[in-house]
Amino acid sequence: MSSTSSTFVTLTYKTCGKVPIKLDVYPPTATITTARAKALNEVPAVLWFHGGGFTFANRTNFFPKWLQQRINDAGCAFVSADYRLIPTGSITAHHILEDVKDAFAFLRSERFEGALDALDIGGNLGFPKFRIDPGRIAAGGSSAGGTCAYFAAAHVQPKPAAVISVFGMGGDVLNSQYLAPKTEPFLKGRPLLDPNRSKDYIYPFSPSVASDILSDSPLAFYPPTATLPALPANPRMPLALLYIQLGNYLDYYTGEHEPSLSDTLRAVGPSIDAETRPGMKKIILRKHVPTQHHAIFPQLNVSASWPPIFLLYGAEDTVVPIAESKNLYRMLKHWGVQAKLKIVDGEDHFFDQDPDAEQKHGDIFDKAASFLIEKLHRRDQ
């Protein structure tokens, strides 16, 4: 890898109420080579969505520097986007799906070009101006951001050129990780959470949580000298894991608290074996999940129209069980979608953020990035 550039510009791709929802654009570090791309000044791009369980973080957190550098070095732009977070206001995964669609629409529109023009005229762009080829945008994300990538595969038109999901959620929600209340520690090295510390964020919400809209809630920890060292200073950070611990994550995801969707699925779901009966799980979900929510369950929307997809997971993931990726992979292969599943032995959730990840897994990162790059450049032939 040759790139060490961290140059980027921040743009607002939509506004909800008075809340701007932003994305960062990292320009290519390699020269445009094809005649067509040169004539149009167009480059491919990867649109990335961050993790955080949909409850916290922002476009700079859990950032895949390994992917951004490889994508930029291949002559492509890398774009990292925020989206609205659960639980704020009445926000659910439906609103996040809207944000995914709107982020794609922005990159494909004259508004994106106009935003770069304005920065260029003001001398604030910092790199040569370019356009994004609307037919050569890939979707990617880690953890909850993987669900956003699946949203793009299922619902964005025109389809993304390719998709990468790094330990992505959403491959199978009909399992005990989402539905079973936990009475013993279930995450590597972490005790059970105290719900009393997060009571404002437990349904029914406090007035402030019920009315706010939030799309930027970054990682923050107390300093080592604090009374509660190493614990999250951002109260939203434990929420997704708390909802998983309580067995009601899907209630917050859909907004179906009364009656509880989790209670409904808990009564029918745990007996189904994800390893051998993905089709039966799909039937159960379609039957028991209200129709208006089907669009936000990726496993209900897999079809032959999905773009090529690369799935990257740690074999020892305690947050998003490996069964999720295997379930989705089987469904993709059933529909004839070009799909690759890479399971990394001995690794847990967010293993790509480890300080030595590049040294340990650089060859795997090369293959994952090359999968996207090949699809993005193929459309320019």
Keywords, separated by commas or semicolons:
Rossmann fold; 34% helix; 15% strand
Q: So how many helices?
A: 13
In CATH, the homologous superfamily goes by the name Alpha/Beta hydrolase fold, catalytic domain
Biggest β-sheet, characterized?
Answer: 8 strands, mixed
Our estimate of the beta-strand percent is 5-15%
Given the C-alpha coordinates, what overall shape results? globular
Number of domains: 1
- Sequence of strands across the biggest β-sheet: 1-2-4-3-5-6-7-8
Distance, first to last CA: 24 Å
Q: Which CATH top level class fits? A: Alpha Beta
Total strand segments: 8
**Rg value:** 20 Å
**CATH-defined fold name:** Rossmann fold
SSE-based structural type:
alpha/beta
Please trace the helix and strand order, writing H or E for each element: EEHEHEHHEHEHHHHHHEHEH
Just name the CATH architecture.
3-Layer(aba) Sandwich
The poorly predicted ranges are: none
Report mean pLDDT, rounded to a whole number. Answer: 91
Keywords: Hydrolase
Domain Alpha/beta hydrolase fold-3: 46-168
Organism: Lentinula detonsa
Pfam family, one: Peptidase_S9
Question: What's a concise summary of this model?
Answer:
The chain is built from 13 helices and 8 strands.
Describe this protein's structure.
- By secondary structure, the chain is of the alpha/beta class.
- It has a single domain (1-381), classed as Alpha/Beta hydrolase fold, catalytic domain (Rossmann fold).
- It is built from 13 helices and eight strands.
- The chain has an eight-stranded mixed sheet, with helices on both faces.
- Helix 3 packs across helix 5 (144-155).
- The longest helix has 22 residues, at 357-378.
- The mean pLDDT is 91.
